[in-house]
Amino acid sequence: MNTEPRIPYKFADLEPAMSRDTLVFHFLRHQRVCHDRMVALARGTQFETLDLEELVRVTERNPAHHALYRYAAEVWNHDLYWRSMRPRGGGAPSGLMAQQIAGRFGTYERFAREFRDAASAHFGSGWLWLVWRSGTLQILTTSNAGTPLVRGDTALLALDLWEHAYYLDHQNRRAAYVNTFLEELVSWEDANRTLASLTAASESRAVARVRPEAPALLRRTGL
Question: Is the per-residue pLDDT at 131 higher than 80?
Fold first, then answer.
């Protein structure tokens, strides 16, 4: 199980938008603890050899393994959360994400407003996501350790809505934290790569569906 958690930048690299203390506390006291408990529960079982994504999917299906599922999901969720931010990030996307946001929401400003509204409306701890579902973008939230990974959605952005993600920097002001994420932290690069891979996979499947017709066409034409 190659699941060792890591942050793709130094703890102080997101300052002043997110403090070093927040990242150290969040990573070591939350994701790292979830990782260690996940490994302990999986050790010596049929789950030990699964990769992280498969572990999340398999354990979610069985209520008897929901403790392991919650820890595994939190590790996976945090991995995407770290990649959803970067030093000197923030602002409107470019590339494929810009095109899809324009097509789905009309403007980036409308997307940002709906993103903020979804965060504000979510009660209690959980996660805010931008996902790819059925050929379009969707904003959704999950409670506690919930993850779109088990819903068949492809997660493009993750924002942690648990209080430990923002209390040191913003106290209980979730709206200020979400604004900071959008204006100073969000990274669109990983989302663009994921979307590009989805587009390429879709095009490959379309070509594969066409190819079987070619022999029949040749027989009909006598070639």
Answer: yes
